[in-house]
Recover the amino acids of this structure.
């Protein structure tokens, strides 16, 4: 039953998605690939869409995958699933267990979860990078460089570093996406 | 009732303008609720941010539930959370209807070559930032290295091991480390 599956998978994502922003990207990627709801390419295209539209990635992804698998009811149930754990927990904290986060045990749990999330995001970035830049999906795959993609990555890195050196705010993700899209078209056309 | 309507429209507005994830939204929330409307005090707001950061779920959803509850109880929480999700839900639903056809356009395909590189860059730089923030102690560095190595290796070997397990195992390791600390302190006191 696709509706139940959508609801439960996104409930799971909602329940363990500590860390905001890209914190949940490892689990979201794993879930959509495992269920064959999206391909790797579609997933990356959607991350770009989500960066350029309002709303958190987890909620956007739930709506999108839900809609593509089960129309409006699917979109609604997947979004409900991803929001529900946060809603219930925040209600409990606001109403009766205000001190939950002050217990030393809870603090110890969270302080170890944070480095774990950072490492998961880093590993996800490297796994995606190996695939996008070198065509490596499995350990035994040969390295086949995609020079145009590597070139775009280098341009963005230089841009990011220069902005950091100039003590300016990091360029906004939307701008970076627009510039990269332009570069992609430019490289193919010359 | 008037209060509910104001909560609803305020969070609708916030949901519409939160590009680039939760942290951009915190400034907007503070401006709305602390400075302009004076519905909650600055101390309460800081508490809320700390709680939202350490509970699962997108920060947008967490803070909507929390502020909604503080201002008008259970229904306030529900109305605010729904309102913050409605804009992105509608936008993403419309996008999902045209997404596949959009990806098939030739120039979109070219642009995606660049965008894929950009998405990897965005996730990678977020991961580096997160990792720098969490490496405070030796224990945290060990977690980062082990989780990163394990996730990378298992992904390349196509062994499925969910991100959920890493998170739970690390959290429990944190609690165990904390308990071990207490035990050794007691022993040395004896």
């Amino acid at each position: 039953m696709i509706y139940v599956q959508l609801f439960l998978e996104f409930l799971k994502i909602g329940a363990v998605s500590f860390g905001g922003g890209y914190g949940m990207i490892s689990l979201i990627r794993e879930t959509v690939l495992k269920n064959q709801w999206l391909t790797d390419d579609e997933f990356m295209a959607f991350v770009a869409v989500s960066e350029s539209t309002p709303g958190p990635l987890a909620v956007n992804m739930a709506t999108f995958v839900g809609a593509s698998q089960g129309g409006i009811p699917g979109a609604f149930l997947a979004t409900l699933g991803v929001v529900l754990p946060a809603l219930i927990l925040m209600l409990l904290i606001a109403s009766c267990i205000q001190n939950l986060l002050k217990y030393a045990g809870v603090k110890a749990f969270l302080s170890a979860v944070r480095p774990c999330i950072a490492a998961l995001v880093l590993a996800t970035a490297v796994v995606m990078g190996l695939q996008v830049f070198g065509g490596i999906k499995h350990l035994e795959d040969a390295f086949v460089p995609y020079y145009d993609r590597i070139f775009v990555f280098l341009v963005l890195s230089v841009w990011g570093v220069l902005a950091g050196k100039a003590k300016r705010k990091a360029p906004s993700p939307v701008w970076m996406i627009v510039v990269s899209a332009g570069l992609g078209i430019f490289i193919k056309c010359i | 009732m008037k209060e509910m309507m104001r909560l609803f429209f305020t969070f609708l507005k916030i949901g519409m303008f939160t590009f680039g994830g939760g942290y951009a939204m915190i400034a907007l929330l503070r401006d709305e609720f602390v400075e302009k409307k004076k519905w909650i005090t600055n101390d309460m707001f800081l508490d809320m941010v700390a709680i939202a950061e350490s509970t699962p779920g997108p920060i947008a959803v967490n803070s909507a539930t929390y502020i909604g509850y503080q201002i008008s109880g259970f229904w306030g929480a529900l109305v605010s959370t729904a309102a913050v999700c409605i804009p992105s839900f509608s936008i993403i639903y419309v996008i999902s209807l045209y997404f596949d056809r959009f990806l098939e356009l030739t120039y979109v395909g070219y642009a995606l070559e660049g965008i894929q590189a950009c998405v990897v860059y965005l996730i990678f730089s977020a991961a580096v930032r997160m990792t720098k923030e969490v490496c405070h102690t030796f224990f945290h560095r060990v977690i980062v290295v082990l989780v990163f190595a394990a996730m990378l290796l298992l992904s390349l070997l196509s062994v499925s091991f969910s991100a959920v397990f890493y998170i739970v195992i690390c959290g429990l390791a944190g609690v165990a480390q904390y308990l071990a600390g207490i035990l050794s302190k007691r022993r040395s006191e004896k």
User: Anything to note?
Assistant: The first helix of chain B runs from residue 2 to 16. The radius of gyration of chain B is 22 Å. Chain B touches chain A through 97 residues (CB under 8 Å).
